[in-house]
Design a protein that fits this description.
It is a single chain. The chain has 251 residues and is α/β, with parallel strands linked by helices. The protein has one domain (23-149, 191-241): Decaprenyl diphosphate synthase-like (Undecaprenyl pyrophosphate synthetase, 3-Layer(aba) Sandwich), CATH 3.40.1180.10. The protein is 39% helix and 14% strand. It contains eight helices and six strands. The protein has helices at 31-37, 42-62, 82-98, 100-105, 121-133, 150-166, 177-181, 229-240; strands at residues 23-27, 67-74, 108-113, 140-148, 194-197, 216-219. α2 runs parallel beside α3 and α3 (82-98) runs parallel beside α5 (121-133). It binds 3-methylbut-3-enyl trihydrogen diphosphate (IPE) (2 copies) and magnesium ion. One 3-methylbut-3-enyl trihydrogen diphosphate (IPE) binds next to α1.
Length: 251
């Protein structure tokens, strides 16, 4: 018997007044625990997690979200046992070969952020092809963070800015938060309004540290493979009730 998904326990509360988030980012956590609870190998959790990604993309489109960013593999996840890394890269390869056409036909534009040079040449080609084949789509901007780590991203940006200043291409006085953001891998992407993490853990694990400055955070007690449309809808409803102040006074 599999444990019932947590959907039934989500209380129906009235909607708040906030417009839906333009950009939702998700830390998709809990695949291993999902598999362990079912006495299955971890890879079964990762496979089921890929199905949850498909549900989530559809839900985001239905809710009018413009930008969806998903954390699929962190720069620290390379520390996992070689067998699990192989399973994860295998699933990635399969996903890129079989699912991109469907994403494309649903109007999804896909981008990847992170150290793609750490993947083999075949995967790197598939990543580039997926970006190219969906570049004209406008319904949903899906960004997949792969071998991504935010500290490395910020450090790389700082070094690129330092080089631009040394070359005389940028004047130090002219550097702003916005122009610095242009050196990050997320340049051109608005900051996330809402960051969801599943699995009950309450941390960012090196995800979008710069971009998360004023994101609303939602930590859900559901394991990623069980995440469904109802959880997404509940997170949207919860967001609609948040009071976003950005340091100013309410009202
Ligand atoms: C998230 O699930 C997927 C990746 C980090 C690649 P985990 O594999 O971290 O699952 P738990 O946290 O061990 O349950
Ligand atoms: C964060 O999950 C990374 C992804 C979901 C891809 P982890 O499972 O790697 O995070 P920690 O180790 O629990 O912080
Ligand atoms: Mg985890």
């Amino acid at each position: 018997m599999s444990p019932a998904p947590a959907t039934a326990s989500i209380p129906a509360e009235p909607l708040g007044t906030n417009a839906p988030p333009r950009h939702v980012a998700i830390i998709m956590d809990g695949n291993g625990r999902w598999a362990a609870a079912k006495h299955l190998p971890r890879v079964a959790g990762h496979r089921e997690g890929a199905r949850a990604v498909k549900r989530t993309v559809s839900a985001a489109i239905r809710h009018g979200v413009e930008w969806l960013t998903i954390y699929a593999f962190s720069s620290e996840n390379w520390r996992r046992p070689a067998g699990e890394v192989l399973d994860l890269t295998g699933l990635l390869r399969q996903y890129l070969r079989t699912e991109i056409a469907e994403l494309a036909s649903n109007g999804v534009r896909i981008r990847f952020i992170g150290a793609r040079d750490r993947f083999d040449a075949g995967i790197q080609q598939d990543l580039a092809r997926s970006e190219r084949d969906t570049a004209g789509n406008t319904k949903l901007n899906l960004t997949v963070a792969l071998s991504y780590g935010s500290r490395d991203e910020i450090l790389t940006a700082a070094l690129a800015l330092a080089q631009a200043i040394r070359d005389g291409r940028v004047a130090p006085d002219a550097v702003t938060e916005e122009s610095f953001g242009g050196f990050l891998s997320t340049h051109g992407i608005p900051d996330p309004d809402l960051i969801i993490r599943t699995s009950g853990e309450q941390r960012l694990s090196n995800f979008l540290l710069w971009q998360a400055a004023y994101a609303e955070l939602a930590f859900l007690d559901v394991l990623w493979p069980d995440f469904d449309e109802a959880h997404f809808a509940a997170a949207m409803a919860d967001f609609s009730r948040r009071e976003r102040r950005f340091g100013a006074r309410p009202g």
